[in-house]
Task: inverse folding
């Protein structure tokens, strides 16, 4: 998956959520603050995605004895899912923050904006971890000239 797919997805989600949050705030409501547990869970998920991607990278670099091909394929799927989930969360939290910015002078909105900032950073970590793990799962192209010399062609 190219890097721009999660980027466009995050921008789309952020635009929609910004409009909805702005409307919600105009009606006199505030979005809830992001729980600390959600931020911690997102960071843990980013670390898990990175850990599995690192295992595939070590194998492709010759530093690991063996790797089950099914595990490698699942790691790639996990990396892509992590990147898209990180993009969705980034868009959600960034959209809420942008929609709440006009009310940043209120003490209640400042507390919510701080929680959204931490959540945005955690989502960016998950997005980046997914993209990096996906990159680590890329198999280097075969050298056709060296392959044909070995086969005698």
Result:
């Amino acid at each position: 998956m190219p890097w721009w797919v999660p980027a466009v997805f995050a921008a789309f989600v952020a635009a929609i959520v910004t409009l909805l949050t702005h409307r919600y705030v105009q009606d006199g409501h505030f979005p809830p603050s992001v729980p600390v547990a959600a931020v911690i869970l997102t960071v843990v998920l980013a670390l898990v995605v990175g850990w599995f991607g690192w295992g595939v990278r070590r194998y492709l670099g010759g530093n690991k004895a063996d790797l089950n091909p099914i595990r490698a394929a699942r790691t790639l799927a996990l990396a892509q899912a992590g990147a898209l989930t990180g993009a969705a969360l980034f868009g959600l939290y960034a959209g809420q923050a942008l929609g709440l910015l006009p009310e940043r002078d209120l003490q209640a909105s400042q507390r919510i904006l701080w929680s959204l900032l931490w959540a945005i950073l955690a989502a960016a970590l998950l997005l980046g971890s997914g993209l990096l793990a996906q990159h680590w799962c890329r198999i280097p192209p075969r050298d056709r000239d060296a392959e044909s010399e070995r086969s005698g062609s």
